Amino acid sequence: MLISQVIQKARFDLGDTQAVKYSDIDLLDTVNTLATMFNDSLVMLKSDYVRTQLILEGSKTKEGKKKIEELDRPIDFYELPSNQWWYDLPVDFVNVNGIYKEDKYRTVRTADYNSDDNLLAGWLALREYDQYRFEGDGFIANVGKVLFSYYYKYPALQMNSLFPLPDWFVPNFNKFVILYMTDQVTKMDTTFMSKVQLEVSKLVARREHNNIRRRLAFQL
Amino acid sequence: MLLLTAIEQLRAELRGVESLDISDKELTYYVNRSCFLVNTLLINVAHPSVVKEKVINTGEDYKTVLPNFLRFIGNYPIRFSNGLISVEDDTTSCLVRYYSNVSPLVLAENPELPIPLDFQDIAIMYARISALNRQDMDTEPDQLLLQNTLVALGFIAQPTTEERVGVK
Which of B19, B82, B143, B149 is at a distance of 20 to 30 A from A25, taking alpha carbons? Predict the structure, then answer.
């Protein structure tokens, strides 16, 4: 569903289909604010709706931190030790889920996943602090190529961009748009934000897990 | 409706009262004032017929680009500084929706009344009240008629009983 359609739906509920009360920019700003709140709530719930992965190549140089009095000087780089690689974070990064290195001998063998073509076959998770470490706007790892799984934030939405969530989120999303536009008191209130979090957690609860009981890896 | 037609209708409505010493110029003044009032009334009830739309750019003079500008509908990332428009956004132009006042009509040009056709009769009613008031005539029946019309259109709230019987 396009953002313009979401805004049109909101105009129906606001009784403003003629656009004589609110401008499109008003509503677009509200939609962006609420999308950010939904995004924050989803990241907090570690939902797969806002999870993605990239394969990143490391670089051997790292951009040096400039002192304030040296801002007009060109940026200097410095070399990293031989067992360290520098990775810039993706622009939409919020929170890390896991960092994996290539390991062609690794296959995950458990009672459930006794197959080579499961998702992480060939990848081995790095250990935090030991094998990778976050530093400012990037991280350092001890391998040159990683699979980087992370939680992302939505880009700024325009009228012609797609609503970043499935369509069945839209009625609940619009409910908050109406509340935000009409109720001036609760605009940036913590009560309002916790309401959003509660609603989102209701929407996505237990989505990732099916109802089938897993076999145990051992038998008594 | 043209201005001369409006004056003609106004004179017809004023027939029977001492209207002979009212000049066309004075009636133009009354029509102008009533057009202004009706336009403001329509803006107050957010009537779609008086909404205007335009693309404006940074650096333009807002008095020439948006003549008789009253206010924007909703918020826009726009500022007026020293009479110049500045779009406070990534772009330098913005599509705005706004309300504006009507400008006074000149009798010699005989222009159209600057308000929607459906509400021009209300403007004539206003003008009649103004003219009668000028002549020290009783305007109460006309005011009641106008009030009833506006209530029927939903532009103003139904007056309370005290207001209706004139209790102060």
Answer: B82
Are B66 and B83 in the same domain? yes
Q: Which residues of B touch A31 (CB under 8 A)?
A: none
Among A165, A183, A123, A166, smallest CA distance to A147 is for A123
Nearest CA-CA distance, residue B39 and chain A, Å: 15
CB A101 within 8 A of CB A143: yes
Closest CA–CA distance from residue A30 to any residue of chain B (Å): 12
- What residue ranges do the domains of chain A occupy? 3-46+158-204, 51-152
Are residues B73 and A18, on separate chains, in Cβ contact within 8 Å?
A: no
Contact B30, B135 (CB under 8 A): no
Partner A contacted by B49 (CB < 8 A): no
Chain B closest-CA separation from residue A22 CA (Å):
4
Total domains in chain B come to 2
pLDDT tens-place values along chain A, 220 residues long: 999 999 999 999 998 898 888 999 999 999 999 999 999 999 988 888 999 999 999 888 887 655 555 556 556 667 788 889 999 899 999 999 999 998 877 665 554 555 555 677 778 889 888 899 998 788 999 999 999 999 999 999 999 999 999 998 999 999 999 988 887 666 667 788 888 888 888 888 777 776 667 667 776 6
Within-domain flag for B24: yes
Whether B167 maps to a domain, the answer reads no
My answer on whether B112 and B147 are in the same domain is yes
Q: Does B17 touch chain A (CB under 8 A)?
A: no
Among B48, B51, B75, beta carbon nearest to A26: B75
B9 lies in the same domain as B41: yes
CA of A104: how far to CAs of A58, A127, B36, in Å? 19, 18, 81
CB pairs under 8 A between A and B: 32
Domain contains B163: no
Q: Are residues B38 and B26 part of one domain? A: yes
Q: Which of B42, B44, B97 to mutate to test the interface with A (most CBs of A within 10 A)?
A: B97
Query: Which domain covers residue B124, as residue numbers?
Result: 3-47+102-133+141-152
Name the E strands within chain A.
51-57, 61-63, 77-79, 85-88, 93-102, 123-125, 132-135, 138-141, 145-152
